[in-house]
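Input sequence (612 aa), recorded before submission:
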Amino acid sequence: MNRSDRQINHPGRKLILQYINYHCAAATPPSKGGETFSILSCQKTKLKLTAIGWGVPRKGLNVFRFLIILSLLFFQTQVSAQKKQVTFREVSKQTKIDFKYTIGDFSYVNILESSGSGITVFDYNNDNLMDIFMMNGTYIEGVSDPDGKVFKDTPDALYKNNGDGTFTDVTKASGINDRYWSMAAAAVDYDSDGDQDLYLLNYGPNLFCRNNGDGTFTDITESLGLRGPDKLNGFVKWSIGAVFWDYNLDGRLDVMVGNFLAFDPAYVSAAGPGIMPHPSEYRGQASMLYEQLPDGTFKDVTEKAGLYYPDSKCMGLTIYDFDDDGDIDIFQANDHHFNFLFRNDNGVFSEVAVASGVAANSKGIGSGSMHGTIGDVDGDGLIDILVTDLEYGALYRKLGNGIFEDISEKSGIAGHMSGKGSWGAVLFDYDNDGDLDIIAANGTAEELILQYPLLLENDGKGHFKNAGQELGEYFKTKRSGRGLAVVDYDNDGDIDVIISHVDKQATTAVLRNDGGNSNHWLGLTLKGQNGPASAISAKVTVTAGEMKQVLINQWATGYLSSNDPRLHIGLGKNKKIDLLGIKWSDGTIEIYKNIDADRYITILQGTGILVK
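Predicted structure, token format:
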């Protein structure tokens, strides 16, 4: 039992509220004038009531007792029922997503093997069903142990959504034939022809696959100029992700590729043979910005744009207009190096992370940051940044004027994440109540120590409690998770979860959300007038009854992973959105009113709402 005492003073008699609760936090009840009373209660049927100087006739006391008991028990029942509404069921077998990750051999001994790979969600065949692309490792001569040759040329996997809760592996039929060690993939309609292309980011050459519109893809990497250099800082280029956006506002999509570190397979750790070297023992590799030219090819403009940092160790890139000045900025999460925040000023970037408060955690330490996922965690209308790492993470709350404060301790996430080793994580509204919760895949790095995954529930004010073990068996099982993506794969209005693992099972977990759609919701796809350039990182404001939300149209915010590209808006008990505003990335603003909930819609810039 949890015991809480509250005391309220009034001009008249004194009130003492004593609640003895069983899993129920008491709220201060209404009080009039100078009443004083004391309540002792618990969840079951035992409840004792005493009066201290009450102005209540003794005859009415029994009736009042009964009403108090009834209301408290009803409240407790409602709370319990609400907790039981949502369940995450592990349904990988039912969905037929049978993907198993490989590290290229049978022993877990180097940083490449420990890093895992990601998950990309996109609709590759335009049937309004979200498909899943899974990246894989492979045997590499000189990196993998000799007995790992059985894993040579291990393929990635494209799973087509059948619309009935199952998926079909269509990798061979799709023509995607990447045999490098794949870390991540960015899905985007780079040529504005109406279908989603796929850019694979590898340890080794990157691969760009153009969607032919018939369910197949063609490798056009060389013609675009997006293969990347063979080596950076003397060793094989190691790309970990990419983000597409229009950095210079010329109407064309550009791309920044995040590169990690200069991995030397022959290096022996200073800690001794048999010990996996720490990331700090390697040099970094520069991330690279490619500008799209009028002919559709790409040119390296990293140095010109002020983004050349050859010894950084990028683990994740997140883009949005953090200072609200009309152009899109970059947050770069770095491993054992201060993070970067690149402020965009007319296509030239300045690094301002230290001045903005997002370079290090609350202790002033540049920890092993994995990535930044963005959202308004406390409902103040400002976009915050959640960063996972192997310590206890950082939650940078935006204060305004481009300044952030790490509230990881104040919010409760530091206590929940401490010692877990968090990798992929997402801010998402699992129960559609209008605030952003956190899900995180956990597991240590240098040694294969399994950890419980986390699902942290937001109280609506940016404080989090661990609710996972109440919501599904998966959260009671220790795994070693890496990539994580959220997606409403069954289009039922609540958000499901897919997680990859590097443990001995190496299986993919598919967590189906059952019950999250008991609250109302809206799914929103934004399409720019001339392609995706003006839609990516657009700001959306929502008013529904008393509820107000601010969201960013950006889905590439997970560790090595990309989420459902549709904005998901939890609406609680509101059956419609009263007002929806869009600030497109090109600066134009549109307002929509009275939008019915519980459906997926598309808004085409300058045209209006298209209902799917």
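Checked by second reader. The domain at 100-518 is CATH 2.130.10.10 (Methylamine Dehydrogenase; Chain H).
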